[in-house]
User: Which sequence fits this backbone?
C-alpha cells in the first residue's frame, strides 16, 4: 500500500490564496519536530452531555483516538503535545511553539477546526488535517490546510513524516487502500489528561458490511470489517490499566458485530482479561440491530462486562428502511429485538431519523409511540442528512435536490438536500417529537421502564469510582438538578425511586443514576435560563417550547423561508439563521 496523490490534487486551486499557491514547494521542516495536535471544539448537541459535564469533575466524554493513533505513528524524535479544545484554550504561544499543527476533526467540528487552521496559518505555522471530515471533503480542506490526509494513516504515515522533514510532502494524500488493522499501533494514551474524560476509547474494528444509503462509514472505512487481533486490544487495555484507568471503555467500532465471529473471539478474551484484573472497567459499544439474533455473542458480551450498546434503529417505517437500504432492520420485529437485547443483559440506547423521502407528517407521532413502546430513554432523534461521499448524497445530486455549500454538520441541522416533506413541517415535527420525548415525565418514565426490564447479570459490574467522587457528583446534582432546576420534583421522585427499587442492585442503581444525571441534558425541557446556560441542549428545547407556545414571529419566518427553501431559493444556512438551533454553524 502506498500514499497515492490524486490525479489532480489541486482541484481547489482557484480558491487558494496566492501565498498558498499549490505549486509552491513547502520547505523542509527538519528533524525533531515539535507537533501540536489539536482536537477542535464541538457545538452543543445530545452527544456533548453539556448539562452532565457541569456536575462532574471531568470535562468531556472522550479523547480523540484518531490523534493519539497518529501520534503513535510519528517518529520517536518528534515532540508531541495534545490540546483538547473541549476544555483547553488555544493560546498564541502554543501555536508558536509548534513546527507543525496537526488537526483532526469530524464535520461537526468544522467551525473550530477552520478557526484553528486559520490562526496557525496567520502565525506562519505549517498545518496538517486528517480525520473523518478530511476523509469526506479533502478538496475543500486543501484551501485551509497545508497538508490534508483523506483516509487512514497507519500504513502511510511513516513515509509522510520523512517527506515532511525533507520538504517533499505532498499537499493532498488520498489513501485509497484500507490498512490492515493488525498493524495499527497502540494509541499514545500517555499524551492524555485522563482525568478530564469519562470514557476511554479502544477500537477493535473499522468498517461495516451493511449498505445504509445515508452512511459515510462505509464510504470512509469500507464495507469489509477489518479488525485488530484480540492480543492488540488486550495490550491497549493493559496500557489503560497501567495508567490507572478504571472507568468506562468505549469500543468505538463502527459496528462491533460487523464480523460477529471476530467479535465473539475478542469478547471471550475480554472476559478472561476482566477476571484476571478484577473487572477494572466496563464496556459499551455500537452495533447493528441484528445483535439481537446472536445469543452467544450477547452472552459473551455480558460476561465481559459490556453494559450497554448504541443501536441505529432509525425508524419504525418499513418503507423508509427499505428506501434507505437499511435492510438489516427489516428482518425481525424491532420491538422484540430491543427487548431480547435488554433481557440478555445489555441496556440499549438508539439513534432515530426523520425526513426520509417516504416520511409524511404522521412519522413524528409514529416515532414517539415507537420510542415510548420500546422504552428507549436515550433516543438520539435527528433529521436525515446526506453526508458527502454517501449514496444518498449522490442520489440527491442526481435528482437536483442537493443544497450546494450547505453548512449542515449534524443531524440537528436542517438537511443539506430538499426534503419531500416541507422543511418547516419537518423541523417543527422534529422539535415537537423531541419536546414530547424529553419532558421530565416522559424521559424519566421511559428510563424507569427500560432499566426495570433490563436484566443485568452478576458478571456486570459498574465502574468502581471512589466514595469521595460519588459523593461530590451526588451533591452537585442535588444542587443543580434538585434545587436549581425547574424539574426538581421529577428529579427527587426519580432519585428516591431508584434508591428504593435498586439499592441492592449496583448495576441498575448506577445506570439509574447516570440516566438521572443525563436528565440535565435530555430531560429538562421546561427549564429556565437560570439552570442551564444558553449554550446547551436544553436551550434548544426551551426555544422549542417557546415556539410551540406560539412564538408567532419565528414560526412565520420558518414557514416562509421554508417555502422558499423548498422552491429552491434559500439554502439551509439561511434557514439556520432564522431557526434558532444553537448548534447550527453558520
Ligand atoms: C467514538 C465516536 C464518537 C464519540 C466521541 C468522539 C470522540 N471524542 O472521539 C461520540 C459518541 C461522542 C460521537 C459523536 C458524534 N459523532 Co462520532 N464517531 C465516533 C466513531 C464511532 C469512532 C471515532 C474514533 O475514535 N475512531 C478511531 C480513529 C482511530 O479513527 P479516525 O479518527 O478516523 O483516525 C484515523 C484517520 O482518520 C487518520 N487521522 C485522524 N486524524 C488525523 C489527523 C491528521 C493530521 C492525520 C494526518 C491523520 C488523521 O488517522 C487515524 C488512523 O488511521 C466514528 C466512526 C469512526 N470509525 O471513526 C464516528 C464518527 C467520527 N462520528 C460521526 C458523527 C457524525 C458524529 C456526530 C455528529 C453524531 C451525529 N449524528 O450528529 C456526533 C458529534 C459529536 C458532538 N459532540 O457533537 C461521523 C463523522 C462523519 C464525518 N465525515 O465527519 C463518524 C465517522 C461516524 C458516522 N459516519 O456517522 N462520535
Ligand atoms: S449499520 Fe450503521 S455503520 Fe453500518 S452501514 Fe448502516 S448506518 Fe452505517
Assistant:
Amino acid at each position: 500500500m502506498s500514499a497515492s496523490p490524486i490525479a489532480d490534487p489541486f482541484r481547489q486551486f482557484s480558491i487558494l490564496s496566492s501565498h498558498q499557491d499549490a505549486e509552491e514547494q513547502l520547505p523542509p521542516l527538519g528533524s525533531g519536530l515539535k507537533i501540536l495536535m489539536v482536537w477542535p471544539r464541538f457545538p452543543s448537541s445530545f452527544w456533548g452531555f453539556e448539562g452532565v459535564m457541569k456536575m462532574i469533575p471531568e470535562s468531556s466524554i472522550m479523547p480523540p483516538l484518531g490523534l493519539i493513533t497518529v501520534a503513535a505513528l510519528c517518529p520517536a524524535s518528534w515532540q508531541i503535545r495534545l490540546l483538547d479544545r473541549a476544555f483547553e484554550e488555544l493560546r498564541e504561544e502554543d501555536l508558536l511553539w509548534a513546527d507543525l499543527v496537526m488537526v483532526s476533526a469530524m464535520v461537526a467540528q468544522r467551525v473550530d477546526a477552520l478557526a484553528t487552521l486559520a490562526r496557525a496559518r496567520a502565525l506562519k505555522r505549517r498545518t496538517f488535517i486528517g480525520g473523518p471530515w478530511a476523509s469526506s471533503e479533502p478538496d475543500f480542506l486543501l484551501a485551509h490546510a497545508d497538508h490534508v490526509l483523506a483516509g487512514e494513516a497507519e500504513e502511510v504515515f511513516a513515509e509522510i513524516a520523512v517527506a515532511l522533514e525533507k520538504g517533499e510532502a505532498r499537499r493532498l494524500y488520498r489513501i485509497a487502500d484500507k490498512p490492515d488493522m493488525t498493524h495499527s499501533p497502540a494509541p499514545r494514551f500517555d499524551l492524555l489528561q485522563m482525568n478530564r474524560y469519562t470514557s476511554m476509547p479502544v477500537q477493535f474494528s473499522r468498517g461495516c458490511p451493511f449498505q445504509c444509503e445515508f452512511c459515510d462509514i462505509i464510504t470512509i472505512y469500507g464495507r469489509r470489517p477489518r479488525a485488530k487481533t484480540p492480543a492488540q486490544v488486550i495490550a491497549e487495555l493493559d496500557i489503560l490499566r497501567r495508567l490507572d484507568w478504571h472507568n468506562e471503555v468505549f469500543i468505538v467500532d463502527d459496528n462491533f458485530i460487523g464480523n460477529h465471529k471476530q467479535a465473539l473471539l475478542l469478547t471471550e478474551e475480554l472476559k478472561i482479561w476482566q477476571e484476571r484484573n478484577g473487572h477494572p472497567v466496563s464496556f459499551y459499544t455500537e452495533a447493528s440491530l441484528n445483535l439481537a439474533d446472536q445469543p452467544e455473542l450477547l452472552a459473551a458480551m455480558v460476561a465481559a462486562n459490556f453494559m450497554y450498546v448504541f443501536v441505529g434503529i432509525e425508524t419504525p417505517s418499513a418503507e423508509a428502511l427499505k428506501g434507505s437500504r437499511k435492510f438489516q432492520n427489516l428482518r425481525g420485529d424491532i420491538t422484540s429485538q430491543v427487548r431480547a437485547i435488554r433481557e440478555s443483559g445489555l441496556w440499549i440506547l438508539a439513534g432515530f431519523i426523520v425526513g426520509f423521502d417516504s416520511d409524511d407528517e404522521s412519522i413524528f407521532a409514529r416515532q414517539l409511540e415507537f420510542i415510548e413502546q420500546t422504552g428507549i430513554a436515550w433516543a438520539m432523534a435527528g433529521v436525515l442528512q446526506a453526508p458527502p461521499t454517501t449514496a444518498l448524497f449522490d442520489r440527491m445530486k442526481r435528482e437536483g435536490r442537493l443544497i450546494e455549500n450547505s453548512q449542515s454538520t449534524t443531524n440537528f441541522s436542517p438537511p443539506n438536500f430538499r426534503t419531500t416533506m416541507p422543511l418547516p413541517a419537518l423541523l417543527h415535527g422534529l422539535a415537537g417529537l423531541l419536546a414530547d420525548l424529553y419532558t421530565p415525565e416522559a424521559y424519566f418514565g421511559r428510563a424507569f421502564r427500560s432499566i426495570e426490564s433490563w436484566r443485568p447479570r452478576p458478571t456486570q459490574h459498574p465502574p468502581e469510582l471512589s466514595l469521595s467522587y460519588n459523593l461530590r457528583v451526588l451533591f452537585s446534582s442535588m444542587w443543580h438538578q434538585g434545587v436549581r432546576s425547574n424539574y426538581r420534583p421529577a428529579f427527587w421522585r426519580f432519585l428516591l425511586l431508584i434508591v428504593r427499587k435498586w439499592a441492592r442492585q449496583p448495576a441498575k442503581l448506577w445506570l439509574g443514576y447516570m440516566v438521572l444525571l443525563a436528565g440535565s441534558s435530555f430531560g429538562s425541557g421546561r427549564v429556565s435560563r437560570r439552570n442551564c446556560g444558553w449554550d446547551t441542549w436544553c436551550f434548544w428545547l426551551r426555544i422549542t417550547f417557546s415556539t410551540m407556545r406560539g412564538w408567532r414571529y419565528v414560526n412565520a419566518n420558518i414557514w416562509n423561508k421554508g417555502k422558499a427553501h423548498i422552491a429552491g431559493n434559500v439554502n439551509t444556512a439561511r434557514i439556520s439563521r432564522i431557526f434558532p438551533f444553537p448548534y447550527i454553524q453558520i
The chain has three domains: 9-174, 198-438, 467-522. The radius of gyration is 24 Å. The first strand starts at residue 34 and ends at 39. Residues 1-23, 524-586 have pLDDT under 50 and may be disordered.
